[in-house]
């Protein structure tokens, strides 16, 4: 079936100097890149502009695809997260094929050790919700735990296993998405966008040394989105997360271990990532020894073998947070769209976000598997311009 063209016709005046794209995506984090990919697959001409900001969330995340563990407080969020998790199972091999690189996608699940009586009750609630949603769960005894994670401290007798939690190397996934786009001829510009202006027939986008126009623009600027002039006031705030990484971890278990105070996520090649702080300190990206040491000692309490090791990496990234914890996905005006504010779950939700917004931008009927919930409508925070 031939792909449909965008609803917005290309204006001849703007096409001087080469055909302008149907859609310009501003921001090339994982959200922007996967939206560009989905738009391309739907037949649109797409370009991406990104300024490779230090602290961007996508390369600095933990890469957990954790629909159950991240959604215990909100069943609607959990249902949506499960749809996106399922999309990852198709997306991961497709990205690897399109880019001819591995993205270290792993489906080993997550282990949530029972640390005390309070924890036991919390985990019972998570288990109940998972089972209500039709997700598999299991209780692991100490022997099974030690087979998977030989370093576990004495006294941990049981854990909840969530086999439906996945993980991906988010750095590799973003690089693979960019490589896949380039292979399809998509131009990835490097520039900082200062403003977007909707005009009759299109949207113009300008920044230092950069000017372009497109029929439609999707803004995916993560925590920096509100800095772009021409957008309505949006309450997106940076929420800093510091993480550390250890080398030479060789447990059989290749998934994530989660406790209330930290998570430990495996990577291929023996790397183990420990995260993450949650800091409301604006755009500051400085690394604090106090936070790094706190993550290391917290992890070593559960995994004593880490006590004698020094982290080989310490970094920070900025999550795009919103007041209600839900992303903003949808139209701001006729031709201007936004997809950001995914806070702690942008890696998990990236494929579904791309699926949600693509038909909207192209003027197509919504994908019935990916309706945009009211909780994500950008209009909940502003009155659309008249
Ligand atoms: C420490 C940490 C751990 C995390 N762990 C997880 C996890 O385990 N699972 C999960 O699902 N999520 C996790 N997240 C959250 C996830 O990383 C984010 O929700 C997601 O990456 C947001 O993607 P994005 O593309 O919207 O933003 P970003 O990745 O921040 O990308 C925004 C891009 O826009 C560009 N940009 C911004 N402004 C402009 C401009 N004016 N002009 C041009 N370009 C611009 C930036 O350079 C950047 O590349 C974590 C985040 C952090 C920080």
Calculate the mean pLDDT score and round it. Answer: 93
Instruction: Give helix % range.
Output: 25-40%
Structural domain tally: 2
Could you name the CATH class of the largest domain? Answer: Alpha Beta
- Give the CATH H-level superfamily of the largest domain: FAD/NAD(P)-binding domain
Largest sheet: 8 strands, mixed
Could you tell me the number of beta strands? 19
User: Numbering strands along the chain, what is their spatial order in the largest sheet?
Assistant: 5-6-4-14-15-16-13-17
The general outline is globular
CATH architecture of the largest domain: 3-Layer(bba) Sandwich
Radius of gyration using CA atoms only: 21 Å
Fill in the keyword field for this structure.
alpha/beta, globular, eight-stranded mixed β-sheet, six-stranded mixed β-sheet, binds flavin-adenine dinucleotide, 386 residues, D-Amino Acid Oxidase, Chain A, domain 2, FAD/NAD(P)-binding domain, 2 domains
Summed up, what is this model?
With 386 residues, this protein is of the alpha/beta class. It has helices at residues 30-41, 57-60, 75-99, 117-132, 142-148, 170-183, 289-302, 346-361, and strands at residues 23-26, 46-50, 64-65, 110-113, 138-141, 158-162, 166-167, 187-190, 193-199, 202-207, 210-214, 216-219, 237-246, 256-258, 263-267, 271-275, 313-321, 328-331, 336-340. Flavin-adenine dinucleotide binds at residues 26-32, 49-53, 56-58, 60-64, 192-193, 220-224, 227-228, 241, 243, 275-276, 317-320, 340, 342-348.
